[in-house]
Write a structure and sequence with these properties.
Blueprint lengths: L3 E6 L5 H7 L5 E5 L14 H13 L2 E5 L10 H18 L2 E5 L6 H16 L10 H10 L4 E6 L1 E4 L2 E4 L14 H11 L10 H19 L4 H29 L4 H10 L9 H14 L5 E5 L6 E5 L5 E5 L7 H4 L12 E6 L2 E6 L6 H9 L42
Parallel strand pairs: 2-3, 3-4, 4-5, 7-8, 8-10
Antiparallel strand pairs: 1-5, 2-11, 6-7, 9-10, 11-12
Length: 412
């Protein structure tokens, strides 16, 4: 299974091409992890849509960097219905959408590959051989006045590489999913896990699990079936971890021993220390032969503002999320930085991280999710100020988490 290249479809708005023809830098708005259909999707609400609309008005192009739709814990119908109001705003304001798919909307990638295989078997070409055809058709139907470009797992825009980033899970895995990871490798038929993973290796690890979860979510009693599946995984993982836990107790839970053990034990992405996630991002960039320069990630829900990898080859940005998820925000990895409602503005090679919900509190966001149709109330101050801990390098207060700040120049 290889990568799927990008594909454009012609539509009515020609704003981006006009600016490019006039020698002006294209203004791109980058969003990720909207998770429409999850029930925690903030951009279902009128209040959140009011916050994002000025950004869409500013942008020539919108980049959706994965997990637009929640197809792991919701049906396709639920996810698309939840996304309609937001995509109506997109259709009204932007000229082009670049959609790079992630893991929670991966089913569309699987559909595209099945269509290609089916066409090959019949001796006839599939409807579209490039891009992610089902995703292209979906956005074309919901945004008929917009040019649509779809790609997976990575695309390049003016020298910037855009990838959702779910491949990092292969390098920062969870003990809860460790059994699934071993099973996935066993099912691939590979004798050993290769030192350097390819796109096919990554896809072999994630595609079976996410297809299974999609099919469960589509059942009439899908949510109940998923809860049973998750309880089974939790039980299996607890059994697998039991010897480790017992050995720690016998060792008296000494901090030095615990620290060494925790350094080896796989952790989920949302519970991994930030440095370990950054190391995984660096490994993925290397494995995908990503040229030195700027890389835009999503997936972790933790905004990044120009962090340079340890090898000095890549400057990492992350557009955060639009999900009201308390667990992700309180995780070790986030360090308190995973407040939702962040975007990246890219004008040429200049990138700005912006927080649009910095003036909101936990209870207000919960009300938006619980009652998405409630009337939006404009804040008394502009919502684009940065939230504490998301300042640029040199402007942060003492005690800010260093990995989230911009670092020095890139290596060649």
């Amino acid at each position: 299974m290889g990568s799927v290249s990008g594909s454009a479809t012609s539509a009515g708005n020609a704003g981006p091409s006009r600016r490019a023809n006039e020698g002006m830098a294209i203004r791109r708005l980058i969003l990720s992890d909207l998770h429409f259909g999850s029930g925690d999707d903030l951009l279902r609400s009128a209040a959140a849509l009011e916050r994002i609309e000025p950004e869409l008005q500013w942008a020539d192009e919108l980049v959706l960097n994965g997990d637009l739709l929640e197809l792991v814990f919701a049906s396709l119908e639920e996810a698309v219905d939840a996304a309609r109001p937001f995509l109506a705003l997109v259709n009204r304001h932007v000229g082009r959408v670049h959609y790079v798919l992630g893991n929670h909307d991966h089913h569309l990638v699987s559909m595209a590959r099945d269509e290609q295989r089916f066409g090959d078997v019949l001796g006839a070409p599939a409807p579209e051989r490039s891009g992610v055809a089902p995703a292209t058709r979906l956005l074309r139907a919901l945004c008929p006045d917009v040019d649509v470009v779809t790609a997976y797992p990575v695309c390049e825009l003016d020298g910037m590489h855009v990838m959702h980033g779910h491949y990092i899970a292969a390098h920062v895995s969870s003990s809860d999913w460790h059994l699934m990871d071993n099973l996935a490798w066993y099912l691939t038929g590979a004798a050993v896990r290769p030192e350097r993973l390819t796109v096919s290796d990554y896809e072999g690890l994630i595609a079976p699990l996410y297809e299974l979860m999609y099919q469960i979510a589509s059942l009439p009693s899908g949510r109940r079936a998923q809860r049973r599946f998750e309880r089974w995984l939790d039980s299996a993982a607890a059994i697998a971890r039991a010897p480790q836990h017992a050995s720690r107790r016998l060792a008296g839970l000494a901090h030095a021993v615990a620290d060494r053990d925790d350094a080896r034990r796989p952790l989920p992405v949302h519970d991994a220390p930030t440095a370990r996630v950054l190391e995984a991002m660096q490994i993925v960039c290397r494995n995908l032969d990503t040229r030195p320069g700027t890389v835009l990630f999503g997936h972790t829900h933790v905004p990044l503002d120009g962090v340079v990898t340890a090898d000095g080859r890549h400057r990492l940005f992350n557009s955060g999320s639009w999900v009201c998820n308390h667990r992700a925000r309180s995780s070790v990895a986030s360090g308190g930085h995973a407040w939702p409602g962040t975007v990246l503005r890219a004008t040429g090679d200049a990138i700005e991280l912006r927080g649009l919900l910095a003036d909101c509190d936990e209870h207000e966001l919960a009300r938006w999710v619980a009652d998405p149709r409630r009337d939006a109330v404009r804040p008394s101050a502009p919502p684009l100020s940065r939230r504490r801990g998301m300042r640029r390098a040199g402007a942060g207060a003492a005690g800010d988490d260093p990995p989230l700040r911009a670092a020095g120049p890139l290596a060649g």
